[in-house]
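sry for the spam today, last one i promise. C-alpha cells for design, 316 residues
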C-alpha cells in the first residue's frame, strides 16, 4: 500500500504515547510502591529490592527443549516475561539464543515443553490463530530486514496495510509519520527514500518504527546494536527503554553487547552451550539483575562479562 507524503506533517488528533526523552528522564513521582511498572525491579523507600509479580506472565516457557537431529540446542528452559519488563539473553555464539527467540514467536517447535503467550500454547493454535497472535509481537531484526523495493514510509506502513485493512490511507499516513518521529527521524526527509539511500543507523530505526506499528505487547530484539557506532548503539538502547517505560511493552533482547544489556534490561539471563554443561546442570546459568551479574562469582559468567579468552584460546 502506497502512503502519501505529508504536506505539513499531518498530526494525529491525539497522540497515544508521549514522545521519548533521550536524556534527563525524571524519576516517577509519588509512591514508589504503586507507580512502578509491573515486572520491573526497583528499590523501595526502605532500600529493599523488589520485583512486582502479581499478574500472570505475558510469555512463559515451560521445560522447553529443542533438538536438531542428534544435536540438543536447548534443554529444560523455564522463563517468564511480564508486561513492562525487558530481559536480556546473553551467552556465547552457538548457545541457542536465536533458537530461543524463534521458539518464542512460534517459528521453531520444541521437542518438549510449551511456549505460552497470554496463557495460550503457541503450538496448539491453528494457522489463523497463530497469525493473529503474532500481530501482538514486534520484531527488530539484526540487519533491520527492510524491503529494498519499498520506500521508508511503505516499509513502516507494511504491517498496517496487511493487518489493519479498515484503516484509511490518511490514518496510515499519520501513523507512519508519528512512528518515524518517535524513533527520531524526520518524515519530510526520509519518507520517499529507499533503504539503500539512508545510513545503517537510520535503517535500524526504521525497522524499530515498523516493529512498533501494530502497538505490540512484546518486542523481540535480535542483536539490535550490531554494526553500529557507540553513539547510535545508545540511541537504540534509549528506544528500547522508551518502548518499555512509555508503552509498557515487554521486551526480550538477545545481544553480545554487555553495555547494552546492563543499561536496558531489568533482568539478564545467561545461557551456556548444552555441550559444555554437566549432565543435570541447568542451561540458564544466571538469571538476575544487571547489578547482580556484575558481581557474579560464577567463573563462566565473569569470563563472558569481561570478554576474556582464558582457556578458550587453546580450544579455538
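last one done:
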Amino acid at each position: 500500500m502506497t502512503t502519501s507524503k505529508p504536506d505539513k506533517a499531518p498530526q494525529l488528533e491525539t497522540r497515544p504515547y508521549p514522545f521519548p526523552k533521550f536524556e534527563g528522564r525524571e524519576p516517577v513521582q509519588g509512591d514508589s510502591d504503586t507507580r512502578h511498572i509491573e515486572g520491573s525491579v526497583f528499590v523501595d523507600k526502605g532500600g529493599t529490592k523488589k520485583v512486582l509479580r502479581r499478574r500472570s506472565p505475558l510469555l512463559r516457557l515451560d521445560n522447553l527443549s529443542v533438538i536438531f537431529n542428534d544435536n540438543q540446542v536447548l534443554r529444560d528452559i523455564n522463563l517468564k516475561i511480564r508486561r513492562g519488563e525487558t530481559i536480556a539473553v546473553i551467552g556465547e555464539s552457538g548457545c541457542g539464543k536465536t533458537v530461543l527467540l524463534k521458539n518464542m514467536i512460534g517459528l521453531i517447535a520444541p521437542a518438549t515443553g510449551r511456549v505460552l503467550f497470554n496463557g495460550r500454547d503457541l503450538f496448539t493454535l491453528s494457522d489463523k490463530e497463530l497469525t493473529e497472535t503474532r500481530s501482538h509481537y514486534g520484531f527488530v531484526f539484526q540487519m533491520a530486514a527492510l524491503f529494498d523495493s519499498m520506500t521508508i514510509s511503505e516499509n513502516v506502513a507494511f504491517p498496517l496495510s496487511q493487518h489493519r485493512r479498515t484503516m484509511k490511507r490518511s490514518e496510515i499516513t499519520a501513523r507512519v509519520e508519528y512512528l518515524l518521529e518517535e524513533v527520531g527521524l524526520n518524515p519530510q526527509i526520509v519518507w520517499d527514500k529507499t533503504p539503500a539511500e539512508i545510513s545503517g543507523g537510520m535503517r535500524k530505526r526504521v525497522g524499530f518504527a515498523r516493529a512498533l506499528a501494530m502497538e505490540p505487547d512484546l518486542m523481540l530484539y535480535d542483536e539490535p546494536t550490531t554494526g553500529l557506532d557507540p553513539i547510535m548503539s545508545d540511541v537504540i538502547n534509549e528506544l528500547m527503554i522508551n518502548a518499555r517505560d512509555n508503552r509498557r511493552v515487554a521486551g526480550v533482547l538477545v545481544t553480545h553487547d554487555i553495555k547494552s544489556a546492563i543499561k536496558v534490561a531489568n533482568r539478564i539471563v545467561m545461557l551456556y552451550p548444552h555441550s559444555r554443561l554437566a549432565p543435570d546442570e541447568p542451561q540458564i546459568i544466571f538469571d538476575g539483575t544487571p547489578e547482580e551479574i556484575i558481581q557474579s562469582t560464577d567463573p563462566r559468567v565473569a569470563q563472558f562479562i569481561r570478554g576474556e579468552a582464558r582457556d578458550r584460546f587453546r580450544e579455538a
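The chain has twelve helices and twelve strands. ok im logging off now
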